[in-house]
Design brief:
alpha/beta, ten-stranded mixed β-sheet, 10 strands, binds ligand NPW, binds adenosine-5'-diphosphate, binds magnesium ion, Ribokinase-like, lyase, ADP-dependent (S)-NAD(P)H-hydrate dehydratase
Amino acid sequence: MKKLTDQILHEVIQPRPDNSFKGTFGKVTLVGGNRNFGGAIIMASTAAVCSGAGLVTTCTDQSNSGALHAQLPEAMFADFTDDQQVASLVSAATTVVVGPGLGDDETSLHILKNVFANVSPAQNLVIDGSAITLMAREKLSQPKANVIYTPHEMEWQRLSGIKIGDQTEEKNRAVRDRLDATVVLKKHHTEIYTATTTYQLPIGTPAQAVGGMGDTLAGMVGGFTAEFKDQGTKAVLAAVYAHSAIADKIAESQYIVLPHQISRALPSFMKKMEAAPQEHHIGFLN
Ligand SMILES: NC(=O)C1=CN([C@@H]2O[C@H](COP(=O)(O)OP(=O)(O)OC[C@H]3O[C@@H](n4cnc5c(N)ncnc54)[C@H](OP(=O)(O)O)[C@@H]3O)[C@@H](O)[C@H]2O)[C@@H](O)CC1
Ligand SMILES: Nc1ncnc2c1ncn2[C@@H]1O[C@H](COP(=O)(O)OP(=O)(O)O)[C@@H](O)[C@H]1O
Ligand SMILES: [Mg+2]
């Protein structure tokens, strides 16, 4: 297993070109947050916005729209039961994030099927939380897209059929190969299975063991894969590394880390990590 280092941040987080606009940095559509789990999709959306995605739209239960706008005016809202609107927002996205707080009832399943029916192969699709549980329970086929799963160990057990105690690198990789997807297996020292390599995250803290921490990671993976779309899987690795690097820093002075604190720290953290700008050679001296 290859250990991730902070080098991945400097590789992926590039200075923004002067000649750019919000469209340059990708569109993220997030789908989730039923009446009970609105916080999950708001945390994921906050992470996507704070990662620097150009445009973020949140498809959620109508009852969450006021809280979403109050917390995060940068995000747009759509009702996740409006199939046509969700279909067009999914089709237009660089990255779709589905699952945080989606729930696992009939409505949740209907919404998930609508998302899967409208993604295309060139798009990134982050499948998290309830969407993983529903896929496993309902034996849904994985849609054709660049799929990134972000399961915790129980969600991975449901999806892969591998019991938590038996989740070895070899067994996990065999399932990854069958799925042909990137798998971010979240735990203390998260493992990331890409097409070619298994990475281990050597940082992170039990101060992160609070509800909403994974929802925040899903939103960051969404934001990074949209903003740094040319970097492919490296954008996923950078999001995973940044999430825990920020948490470690906050945990120096706090007993626990609140998920939204990671998101709020992202803009200044990313500024510190951005790669040095290319030197401009000025020709008038020679
Ligand atoms: N504020 C909000 O709106 C929030 C909304 N949320 C949303 O809730 C939805 C359900 O997600 P979920 O993760 O809470 O529940 P589920 O998938 O049933 O898994 C829990 C079961 O698995 C077991 N378990 C064993 N190992 C484990 C491990 N390593 N990591 C985690 N669990 C492990 C565990 O064992 P136990 O803790 O009981 O010992 C328990 O039996 C999802 O959409 C999510 O986005 C949450 O994000 C919270 C904040
Ligand atoms: N002991 C720990 N050490 C490091 N990271 C942890 C620890 N416990 C949990 N985490 C991190 O917290 C997140 C939990 O994800 P998840 O269980 O999906 O949370 P939620 O669904 O409540 O948002 C993952 O990123 C995981 O790696
Ligand atoms: Mg989760």
